[in-house]
Design goal:
The chain is mainly beta and about 150 residues long. The chain has one domain: Lipocalin (Beta Barrel), CATH 2.40.128. The protein has 1 helix and 11 strands, in the order βββββββββββα. It has one helix spanning about 135-145, and strands at about 5-15, 15-20, 25-30, 35-40, 50-55, 65-70, 75-80, 85-90, 100-105, 110-120, 125-135. The chain has a 4-stranded antiparallel beta sheet, with no helix packed on it. Strands 5-6-7-8 form a 4-stranded antiparallel beta sheet, with no helix packed on it. A 3-stranded antiparallel beta sheet has the order 9-10-11. A hairpin with a 3-residue loop joins strand 6 and strand 7 (about 75-80). The longest helix is centred in the last third of the chain and has 8 residues, at about 135-145. The protein is globular and about 50 Å long. The relative contact order is 0.15.
Amino acid sequence: MPSQWITQIHEYAPNKYLIGKRNDTTYVVINRELNQTRILKPEHRTEKCTYIRPLPGFDEIKFPYFLARNRATIDLINITTMKVYPLVKSLLKQIFPFESTSVVTTNPEGTQFKVFYIENHDATTDSMELRSVGFNSLFIIDKLGRD
């Protein structure tokens, strides 16, 4: 990937990677076993990826979802359908947001999640707003999972 600044990379299976970049508006899925690279270009604006993690319960076939944080949004990425959905639109003041996202399961079965994220961080006063959004895996599968 010439002249790309990779900020996040996650190996979700042997030789399979999801990549986020700082100087581009795409995500990249690489499968080294098949020598395959797929570019995910969201319909919405993304830039400066600072966080990529699989959701709790991740399974490449049954629940293939990642959460990605960038300057403009928090995205839900389906690595099977290669689609990107904006989960939260979050316009930050700072140029390069720090990794300020966390996913917490909120029930024993691990099917309900809460995403905590920092918004509007002001480095001059060190003030920020903590926000959260909740969702569950059944909603994701019903609404987004098989398209």
